[in-house]
């Protein structure tokens, strides 16, 4: 081999060694730097920081119904339309999860997340059930929502907002749309509940179990066949065993078989302390066991709406199944209606198909508002 070739080979090997060494050191440094929860949260917080002069980034307590409740207001231009997310669960507010899906929304909307009373950042570790449930009624939640919209209209200088009700939050959203249409551009229901939720959930889950030949699921579900809707709501073993199998058949998060990842998301929320994360989970449990708040047949409110109504629903959702939501959607009357189906989603399409969900917001919701604000040219 020529001397020049030998020298080149040694030079190349030396460069390769230096590259691999520096890469290893860099990766080790990076691995070490995010070992702590606080480090990971710091990265997420910096990534999501609103940097535009027209923007708004507020985390504050607002007194609603005499109780301070945490509210997040975020957007890159506060002249954009206001979108209020009404959480479900109960006990499942989104301030602690919004970091995982909301950032693109903030280019087009001023997004408001509300941790409702006794939940999320408002929850207190170790609160007993009686104290937790005090004044936790549908009427109280609807009144709180009204007060919040009134506050936002004044705080942000907007005549109208978009109300988006998620899951059980859809009961609050429908009541709000009925009672304060003059305050709303439109109502959007995600995983919209309406009537006979438990029966529809049970029927579809049993149907899937039979189709899959899952003898264990069928054996566990069959004894519940004769239960009434009210019994399915009141008896926790019936309710939660049905949901256990619904999760198995992709009825919660499509492709993931349950809620475990969802429940981990608040642990990386910049808005939540360690105590908030623990209390959030406690509140979610307390407000979902032996709690019939909001279990109302929304058809009792009548079919007529004065504002546009949109439903965003996952094809695989079982709480409620898509056909249950469609029945209610087709029954209601509104100046404009649209039902958007997400084909690879269950109950949380904004996390399961975030790109398609965002596109649906821009295509179907944004045109119903005053439109996205323009930026002033600064250079």
Automatic annotation (TrEMBL):
Keyword Membrane applies: no
A GO molecular-function descriptor: hydrolase activity
Alphabetical list of InterPro entries matching this protein: AB_hydrolase_1, AB_hydrolase_fold, AB_hydrolase_sf
Domain of life, source organism: Bacteria
Keywords, sorted A to Z: Hydrolase
Pfam families xrefs: Abhydrolase_1
All residue ranges annotated as the AB hydrolase-1 domain in the record: 81-354
One of the record's GO cellular component terms: membrane
Record has Hydrolase as a keyword: yes
Gene3D superfamilies hit by this protein: alpha/beta hydrolase (3.40.50.1820)
PANTHER family per record: AB HYDROLASE SUPERFAMILY PROTEIN YCLE (PTHR43798:SF31), MONOACYLGLYCEROL LIPASE (PTHR43798)
Protein name: Alpha/beta hydrolase
């Amino acid at each position: 081999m020529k001397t020049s070739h030998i020298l080149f080979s040694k030079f190349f090997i030396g460069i390769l060694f230096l590259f691999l060494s520096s890469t290893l050191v860099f990766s080790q440094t990076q691995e070490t730097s995010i070992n702590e929860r606080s480090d990971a949260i710091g990265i997420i917080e910096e990534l999501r920081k609103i940097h535009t002069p027209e923007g708004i980034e507020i985390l504050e307590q607002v007194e609603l119904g005499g109780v301070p409740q945490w509210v997040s207001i975020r957007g890159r231009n506060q002249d954009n339309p206001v979108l209020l997310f009404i959480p479900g669960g109960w006990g499942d507010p989104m301030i602690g999860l919004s970091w995982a899906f909301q950032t693109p929304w903030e280019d087009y909307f001023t997004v408001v997340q509300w941790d409702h009373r006794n939940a999320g950042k408002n929850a207190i570790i170790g609160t007993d059930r009686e104290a937790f449930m005090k004044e936790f009624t549908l009427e109280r939640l609807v009144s709180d929502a009204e007060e919040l919209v009134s506050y936002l209209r004044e705080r942000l200088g907007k005549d109208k907002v978009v109300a988006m009700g998620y899951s059980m939050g859809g009961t609050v959203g429908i009541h709000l749309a009925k009672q304060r249409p003059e305050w709303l551009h439109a109502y959007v229901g995600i995983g919209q509940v309406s009537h006979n939720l438990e029966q529809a959930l049970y029927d579809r889950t049993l149907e899937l179990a039979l189709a899959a030949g899952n003898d264990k699921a069928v054996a566990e579900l069959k004894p519940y066949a004769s239960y009434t809707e009210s019994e399915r709501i009141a008896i926790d073993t019936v309710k939660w065993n049905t949901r256990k199998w619904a999760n198995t058949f992709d009825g919660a998060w499509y492709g993931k078989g349950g809620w475990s990842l969802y429940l981990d998301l608040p642990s990386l929320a910049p808005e939540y302390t360690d105590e908030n994360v623990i209390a959030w989970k406690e509140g979610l449990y307390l407000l979902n066991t032996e709690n019939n708040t909001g279990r109302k047949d929304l058809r009792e409110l009548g079919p007529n709406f004065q504002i546009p109504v949109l439903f965003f629903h996952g094809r695989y959702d079982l709480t409620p199944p898509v056909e249950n939501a469609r029945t209610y959607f087709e029954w209601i009357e509104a100046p404009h209606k649209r039902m958007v189906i997400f084909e690879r989603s269950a109950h949380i399409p904004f996390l399961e198909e975030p790109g398609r969900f965002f596109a649906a917001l821009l295509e179907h919701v944004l045109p119903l508002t005053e439109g996205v604000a323009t930026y002033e040219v600064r250079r």
